[in-house]
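Thought: the user wants the 3D structure for the chain below. I'll pass the sequence to the structure tool as-is, report back what it returns, then summarize two notable features.
Action: structure_tool
Action Input:
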Amino acid sequence: MSKSVCVVWSNDAKAYEQALAREQLLDRFDLHSLKLDETISDDLAERTEILAAWRPGNYLKHMPRLRWIQTMTAGVDPWLAHPDLRADVTITCARGSHRLSMPENILGAIFHLTKPYMAIALAQRESRWTKQMSVPLVGKTLGILGLGAVAHEVARKATALEMRVIGTKRTPGPVPYVDKVYGPEHTDEVLAASDFVVLLLPSTRETVNFIDKDRLRAMKPSAYLLNFARGALIVDDDLIAAVRSQQIAGAVLDVFRQEPLPATHPFWKTEGILVLPHLGGGHPQRGAAVAEIFVENARHYLAGETMKTVVDRARGY
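Observation:
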């Protein structure tokens, strides 16, 4: 039986080998591991059928036999925009690898906004007793734009805190732990009703610059915006203006149009905006989590079946 030539381009490549071995699939692949700082040889590129990698590159033009790409991220914008990506190559993403870690970070940000631990810690540096007030989350409304896998887990945890959860979904329908699901055309209704708005939308033609001055006007003056999805969803200048004028209470941003965020960007100095260094879905076991997604897809690939996290190029995710 011929083996499929597979290149895993990651510093966590061992996790892929171990995951394939656990499922007794390792002998079906001619597996090659590359560190992130290594380059692929022309000979190996020419023979590669399967690629698991973080980012695209000019090497794609040297892979005539490439049939399947497993991206190591949930977002695939750079891959879809790359000129050397052929239309006949199937792309699967790492959708679901953030399911546990990102909800904790989102709720951590909400706790940061409502529990004054940072102010208390700063006061302790000066041995200063300053009375603070904690704002309860019970009864607050959490609005989620983009009710995908991560959002489901956010909703479950938020409901346990006795928050009300509403949100938007491309195809509306019942979602566990979500009180009401709206279509995208009702986004302003979600914005107007929410105390915290969390962005979990993919980056597509329809969602670039989605949060602009008009949508910010739809939010409560007491509401906060949290972006853990894609930096391009927000019109930066419009958000800065809304926070500075107290049109909204503030924002927590974990993703940006350019990363690392340039030191000259006004987000850094805008009071009411908290800049996070793409904390999002990263965690110590993430490499192993993506490897498990890859192995599940590999099983379907070998059987000639549709893989689980196939990217719809028309939709962009």
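Final Answer: Structure generated. The chain has two domains: 4-97+284-302, 101-275. The CA atoms of residues 76 and 220 lie 33 Å apart.
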